[in-house]
């Protein structure tokens, strides 16, 4: 059993602050009879409600118990909004203190039974490490690894709870860069995660994008944010849109100036 749910404003501050998971007027989506030792959790803002309903249907088909938390979108960039993730996880740990939690991005897609993930998880925290090749001048091709939040498995242990508390506290730290998201913050606290065991997920369970996932992957991901950005980029690359903008910004003012000079 975990200690009462508290977290500090910074990892070094002893003033207890109860995390607020930004609850929404919209209802959580819950399908759980309490019979399993594990539970899928996710969270969604109003503009992702359709994704939450679709994910719930997929989880119901495979018999996966789940609790999807509804949250207000609030202010801030997408990366800043992602910093709410540890607050949601702490809330889930409080509600389900004896169960293994499988945390998913709400725009993940589930294609196979997930019970083996929970059964095989032996570490306190199981996640995917993203390989990255540097594009910086002088470091091109250098391989590094970053953490992924798309799929996280958290066992009901004190070290796992402590790690999420530290993550929550660091997300609330005023020194965190404005453009930093929850993954960046988590990567900063991992070096000081003494006494906490970690394990890595295979690519088939990592929630990789459809085009990157291996055949038969149990969990994949279709980025809603990337889709919206792509639509916006396509909008700006359409020739008819560019022509209309050129006419409005260049041709119309030139005609007005010409007419003014003639007068």
Descriptive report:
- The protein has 263 residues and is of the alpha/beta class.
- It folds into two domains: 7-222, Spore Coat Polysaccharide Biosynthesis Protein SpsA, Chain A, CATH 3.90.550; 226-263.
- Helices cover 36% and strands 21% of the residues.
- The protein has eight helices and twelve strands.
- The protein has helices at residues 49-61, 78-82, 85-95, 115-120, 158-171, 182-189, 224-237, 239-262; strands at 7-8, 16-17, 29-31, 38-44, 66-70, 100-104, 108-110, 125-133, 143-154, 198-200, 208-209, 219-221.
- The chain has a seven-stranded mixed sheet, sandwiched between helices.
- Helix 3 (85-95) packs antiparallel against helix 5 and helix 5 packs across helix 6.
- The longest helix has 24 residues, at 239-262.
- It is elongated, with a radius of gyration of 22 Å.
- Residues 1-25 and 229-236 have low confidence and may be disordered.
Number of domains: 2
CATH topology term of the largest domain:
Spore Coat Polysaccharide Biosynthesis Protein SpsA, Chain A
How many strands?
Answer: 12
Q: For the largest beta sheet, what order do the strands appear in spatially?
A: 3-5-4-6-9-8-10
Name the poorly predicted regions.
1-25, 229-236
Query: Could you name the CATH class of the largest domain?
Result: Alpha Beta
Instruction: Name the shape in a single word.
Output: elongated
Beta content:
15-25%
Distance between the termini: 84 Å
Helix and strand pattern: EEEEHEHHEEHEEHHEEEHH
Q: CATH-wise, what's the superfamily of the largest domain?
A: Spore Coat Polysaccharide Biosynthesis Protein SpsA, Chain A
Can you summarize the main beta sheet?
7 strands, mixed
Query: Which radius of gyration do the C-alpha atoms yield?
Result: 22 Å
Task: Indicate the CATH architecture of the largest domain.
Answer: Alpha-Beta Complex
Give me the secondary-structure category. alpha/beta
């Amino acid at each position: 059993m975990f200690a009462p749910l508290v977290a500090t404003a910074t990892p070094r501050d002893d003033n207890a602050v109860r995390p607020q998971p930004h609850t929404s007027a919209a209802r959580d989506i819950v399908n759980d009879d309490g019979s399993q030792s594990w539970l899928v959790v996710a969270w969604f803002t109003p503009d992702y409600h359709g994704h939450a309903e679709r994910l719930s249907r997929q989880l119901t088909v495979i018999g996966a118990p789940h609790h999807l938390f509804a949250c207000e979108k609030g202010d801030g960039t997408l990366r800043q909004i992602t910093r709410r993730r540890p607050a949601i996880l702490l809330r889930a740990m409080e509600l389900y203190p004896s169960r293994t939690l499988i945390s998913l991005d709400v725009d993940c897609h589930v294609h196979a039974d997930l019970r083996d993930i929970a059964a095989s998880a032996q570490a306190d925290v199981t996640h995917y490490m993203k390989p990255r090749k540097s594009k910086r001048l002088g470091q091109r091709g250098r391989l590094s690894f970053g953490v992924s939040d798309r799929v996280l498995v958290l066992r009901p242990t004190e070290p796992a709870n402590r790690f999420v508390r530290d993550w929550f506290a660091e997300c609330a730290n005023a020194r965190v860069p404005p453009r930093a998201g929850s993954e960046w913050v988590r990567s900063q606290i991992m070096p000081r995660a003494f006494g906490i065991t970690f394990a890595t997920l295979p690519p088939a369970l990592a929630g990789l994008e459809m085009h990157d996932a291996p055949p038969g992957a149990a969990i994949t991901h279709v980025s809603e944010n990337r889709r919206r950005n792509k639509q916006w980029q396509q909008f700006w690359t359409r020739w008819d849109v560019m022509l209309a903008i050129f006419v409005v910004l260049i041709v119309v003012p030139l005609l007005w100036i010409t007419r003014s000079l003639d007068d």
